[in-house]
Amino acid sequence: MLSLLTRPFAWIGALVLGVLREIGAVVIFAANGTAHAFRPPFFLGELARQMVRIGYNSLPVVGLTALFTGAVLALQIYLGGSRFNAGAVVPQIVAIGITRELGPVLAGLMVAGRVSAAIAAEIATMRVTEQIDALVTLSTNPFKYLIAPRLVAATLTMPILVAAADSIGIMGGYLVGTERLDFNAATYIRNTVEFLTQGDVASGLWKAAVFGFIIALMGCYHGYHSGRGAQGVGRATTQAVVSASVLILAANYILTELFFSA
Amino acid sequence: MTHPMIEMKGVAKSFGSKHVLRGVDLSVERGQSLVIIGGSGTGKSVTLKCVLGLIEPDAGEIWVDGARVDGKPRGDALLSRFGMLFQGGALFDSLTVWENVAFRLRQDRSKSNAECRDIAIEKLRRVGLKENVADLFPAELSGGMQKRVGLARAIAADPEIIFFDEPTTGLDPIMAGVINELIREVVVEMGATAMTITHDMSSVRAIADRVAMLHEGAIQWEGQANFLDVSGNPYVDQFIRGSAEGPIEAVR
Ligand SMILES: Nc1ncnc2c1ncn2[C@@H]1O[C@H](COP(=O)(O)OP(=O)(O)O)[C@@H](O)[C@H]1O
Ligand SMILES: [Mg+2]
Q1: What pLDDT is attached to residue B251?
Q2: Is the shortest distance between the CB of B54 and ligand 1 below 6 Å?
Q3: CA-to-CA distance for A161 and A172, rounded, in angstroms?
Q4: Minimum-distance CB partner of B88 among A129, A136, A138
């Protein structure tokens, strides 16, 4: 009888302990990977390869996402704003919405889907086919050769991707504003440029760097700790995408509090 | 006093409730070729991985060249004395064949790329592969060719101690013969110490100085290769006869 009453607490306790252990493991993993990024030898060729793979190859997805988001944002702001004669604020709100939030967050989520999954699948496959063991026997630290380049590449390229997303997103709003909503082109651009502050853009780029780190970290972590066989690879991939996406949204809230609530 | 090159004392390893190794005692003298035989899934690969530190044993001691190495990560100085051919090849699939073979040489950064490539091609030739595979990716090769590339990678830096995990599995008999000869050469000419896992009895006879039989997590028999047929050990006899009858259960 008593055990029936206490059992839920045991479950909750086990759950909390499990979560804490996992968080601890992720933090140690991240610290280990970061430390290796700053200690020679550096694998610059690997870094360059990862930057192309993570950054450059994500450009089409991120660009299209930003374009349509900017476009739909312009439409909705105009429709909503018109209800209280504030339809004219479209350029300003599109600019601030894209640079502060939607640029980094949507780019982050899209890249999480693309890159976290790819990294997790690749590293998990290397684990399953003993390539990681082979690295170790060839005196090469997997953290230095595999993890560090991916963490650095994603952290450096995400801000560049988001800068591109910001420009394309604002352009999407501009196209809808001038083609569909009869805004004057010169006025639209002037309102955007004069309204935006450096802080709006910079905060988004800082977020992007953090999201990039999260994306690579989750891909690497779940791949590295993959279970055996094809099933292990599949599970690692799913876990990487889900955890990267959730962490991006959580980190976004925390960073927004840090940047703007003063 | 000379010490063995590799010595395992009471090495045990379990995965969850599965007790794979239950106290393995094994020693290999310098310049000797030991072959480990045993049914699949008996922990032969795990044994090699314990020596390399890829799997940390739960109990027991591992000594390499007179120094105890278990319980801590194996350092670069130690690992650079080893070469390992993995059972599945374990080639890096993002690198070309020659980059795989020359991987360790290229990490040293003392040789130019062209020199490394030349050495890689020379090693590929020794395992019976032509220069034209050098720029292919592992995925473009057959399983047997991948195995041989893995072998070339294992011997590329002329290691003192070499582990071969099923070097001839998946090869045709002629190529298996070539590989057996190569392993023998590496031991005799380079004076390397070798541990080889194999199921292939012709391979055992070609490579082994000594043979050890692993079953139920322990070494059941160890002795000179030429005593294999007169071991009087029921496990060994069943294994070399390849018979379903005997102390080794056919259903495991
Ligand atoms: N990393 C691991 N995690 C869990 N079980 C493992 C691991 N490595 C090996 N095993 C198990 O240990 C047993 C022995 O494996 P192995 O040494 O590969 O056998 P073999 O003698 O055929 O080389 C198998 O049952 C395998 O499933
Ligand atoms: Mg094996």
Answers
A1: 64
A2: no
A3: 16
A4: A129
What's the rounded Cα separation, in Å, for the pair A187 and B238? 90
Tell me the shortest Cα–Cα distance from B54 to chain A, in angstroms. Answer: 6
The H or E element spanning position B193 is strand B193-197
B84/A137 touch (CB, cutoff 8 Å), yes or no: yes
Looking at ligand 1, which residue's alpha carbon is closest to its atom 24? Answer: B41
Which ligand is closest in space to the CA of residue B18? 1
Would you write out chain B's pLDDT as a tens digit for each of its 252 residues? Answer: 589 999 999 999 999 999 999 999 999 999 999 999 998 899 999 999 999 999 999 999 999 999 999 988 898 899 999 999 999 899 999 999 999 999 999 887 788 989 999 999 999 998 889 999 999 999 999 888 999 999 999 999 899 999 999 999 888 888 899 889 989 988 888 899 999 999 889 899 999 999 999 999 999 999 999 998 888 889 898 988 888 888 888 765
Q: Is the CB of B13 under 6 A from ligand 1?
A: no
- CB of B39 closer than 6 angstroms to any ligand 1 atom: no
Mutate to test the pocket of ligand 1, among B45, B163, B169 (most ligand atoms within 8 A of CB): B45
- The answer to whether B116 and B105 have CB atoms below 8 angstroms apart is yes
Question: Distance (Å, rounded) from C-alpha A40 to C-alpha A36?
Answer: 8
pLDDT at residue A72 is higher than 70: yes
Distance CA B227, CA B208 (A): 11
Q: What is the pLDDT of residue B23?
A: 95
- Distance CA(B72)–CA(B27), nearest Å, equals 20
Concatenating the DSSP letter of every residue in A92-159 gives HHHHHIIIIIIHHHHHHHHHIIIIIHHHHHHHHHHHHTTHHHHHHHTT--HIIIIIHHHHHHHHHHHH
Each domain of chain A, given as residue ranges in start order, spans: 42-260
Question: Among B54, B76, B79, which Cα is nearest to B64's?
Answer: B79
- Half-sphere CA count of B133, side-chain side, radius 13 A: 23
* Residue of chain A minimizing CA distance to B87: A130
Nearest-Cα residue of chain A relative to residue B153:
A138
Chain A residue numbers with beta carbons less than 8 Å from the beta carbon of B93 are 125, 131
Query: What is the number of alpha carbons within 13 Å of residue B242 lying toward its C-beta?
Result: 4
Interchain pair A139, B79: CB under 8 A: yes
Q: Does the beta carbon of B37 lie inside 6 Å of ligand 1?
A: no
* Chain B residue with minimum CA distance to A141: B76
Q: What pLDDT shows up at residue A262?
A: 63
Distance B249 CA to ligand 1 centre (A): 18
Give CA torsion, residues A210, A211, A215, A221, to 10 deg. 40
- Can you tell me the distance from the alpha carbon of B74 to that of B187, in angstroms, rounded to the nearest whole number? 24
